[in-house]
């Protein structure tokens, strides 16, 4: 079985290839085949999924089964019910290629240089740490968090342990979430655009506004909390080297965003597919331009295989979520879930707050925000009758991403908990005020978009 699991990427890649073919050739039989293979993926992945995701999968499948039996669907419809989120799994499978290009180009060393530049107080380091995370997490994703936490652990080894742990759990997790707000590689943002059909180019400026406001507010907070704590003098890296690599990194980010926008708006691909299809060619060309092709390939192939072989948690979550969403839309019980939305259809603020606190409460209960996003996606048609597509996309993505630093079972919180020996609920408690503020910023900006849209 171990040998079979090591080669699961071949089977998964075949399913993903069929999904790409379906994007260009809309054939119902092919869609059913994809759904049938997705069911096999679910069976293979379930035993290896984490306990939380197993429970989520069982709950979602049970709810979906109830809605299936209450509707008028037949057994022949079942395979197609699992095919809807295969595209999201394909995106998740492709993410390591971009990360590999960043590592091959040694941009992860840029993070080290920026963090080790001279600062005199912990408050000054807080702003620098958060700015570094926001700048680089868009491509490095979780790698930026683990690298920066290891560096900060070394840099702050003479600082009181409680102060150090508070500093790291706030600066790195919050900076990480601020990067996710606008990164096209973030699955929550991509899913919100997928659900609403909004244009990423229209959504992007609003997400950048939320990220900028969140950064300013949190940096000010960090200076107030840690500003008086002095740091031992630290020698920084080469300024010229830093500036050159930072310019190259920013240029690459702009080019990638431009590529995605071109594919989505000129070629007219769906945003999710545009991001997915752009990742590998862009990362490959980037490594060629940087003359890092061999390193890219040496790092990328094993990383991609390992990552794709271990998509178990997301397979269980996304495929069971697809089943729930499709059965819910065909169930008469959908009307019951629509009643609160209908009741407050003339009060956008109430709907927005319900969505914000829906994400927060479900996250604190251990439910992945992607699952909550899918539940809201099940009533997206009705939500878009009350809110424009751009407004809804901004609202869903910002309020979902705001919960990332406060998710007790989230990956970034778990990594921080292990790295520093902290109780995950203490990390949640430290970041809960930020989650609330960032969520309210998302609601406020969403309300502002109503003036335009």
Automatic annotation (TrEMBL):
Alphabetical keyword list: Membrane, Transmembrane, Transmembrane helix
Membrane-spanning intervals of the chain: 7-25, 31-48, 55-75, 81-102, 179-200, 206-226, 246-265, 271-289, 349-377, 389-412, 432-452
UniProt name for this protein: Uncharacterized protein
């Amino acid at each position: 079985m171990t040998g079979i699991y090591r080669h699961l990427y071949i089977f998964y890649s075949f399913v993903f290839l069929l999904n790409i073919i379906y994007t260009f050739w809309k054939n119902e039989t092919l869609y059913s085949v994809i759904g049938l293979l997705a069911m096999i993926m679910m069976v293979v992945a379930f035993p290896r999924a984490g306990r939380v995701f197993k429970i989520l999968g069982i709950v979602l499948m049970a709810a979906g089964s109830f809605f299936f039996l209450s509707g008028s669907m037949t057994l022949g419809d079942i395979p197609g019910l699992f095919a809807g989120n295969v595209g999201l799994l394909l995106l998740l499978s492709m993410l390591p290629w971009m990360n590999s290009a960043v590592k091959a180009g040694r941009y992860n060393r840029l993070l080290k240089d920026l963090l080790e530049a001279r600062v005199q107080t912990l408050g000054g380091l807080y702003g620098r740490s958060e700015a570094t995370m926001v700048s680089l997490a868009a491509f490095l994703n979780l790698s930026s968090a683990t690298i920066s936490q290891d560096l900060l652990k070394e840099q702050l080894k003479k600082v009181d342990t409680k102060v150090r742990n508070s500093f790291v759990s706030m600066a790195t997790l919050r900076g990480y979430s601020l990067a996710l707000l606008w990164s096209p590689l973030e699955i929550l943002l991509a899913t919100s655009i997928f659900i609403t059909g909004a244009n990423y180019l229209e959504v992007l400026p609003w997400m950048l506004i939320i990220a900028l406001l969140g950064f300013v507010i949190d940096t000010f907070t960090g200076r107030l909390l840690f500003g008086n704590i002095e740091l031992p003098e630290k020698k920084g890296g080469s300024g010229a080297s830093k500036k050159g690599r930072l310019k190259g990194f920013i240029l690459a980010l702009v080019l990638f965003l431009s590529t995605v926008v071109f594919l989505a708006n000129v070629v007219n691909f769906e945003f999710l597919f545009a991001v997915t299809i752009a990742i590998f060619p862009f990362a490959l060309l980037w490594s060629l331009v940087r003359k890092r092709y061999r390193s890219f390939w040496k790092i990328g192939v094993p990383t991609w295989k390992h990552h794709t072989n271990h998509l178990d948690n997301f397979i269980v979550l996304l495929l069971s979520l697809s089943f729930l969403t499709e059965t819910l839309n065909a169930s008469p019980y959908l009307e019951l879930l629509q009643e609160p939305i209908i009741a407050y259809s003339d009060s956008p603020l109430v709907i927005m707050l319900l969505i914000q606190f829906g994400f927060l409460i479900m996250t604190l209960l251990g439910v992945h925000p992607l699952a909550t996003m899918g539940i809201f996606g099940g009533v997206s048609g009705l939500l878009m009758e009350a809110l424009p597509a751009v407004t809804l996309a901004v609202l869903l993505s910002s309020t979902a991403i705001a919960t990332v630093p406060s998710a007790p079972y989230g990956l970034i919180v778990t990594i921080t908990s292990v790295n520093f020996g902290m109780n995950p609920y203490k990390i949640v408690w430290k970041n809960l005020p930020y989650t609330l503020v960032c969520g309210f910023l998302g609601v406020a900006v969403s309300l502002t978009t109503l003036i335009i849209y």
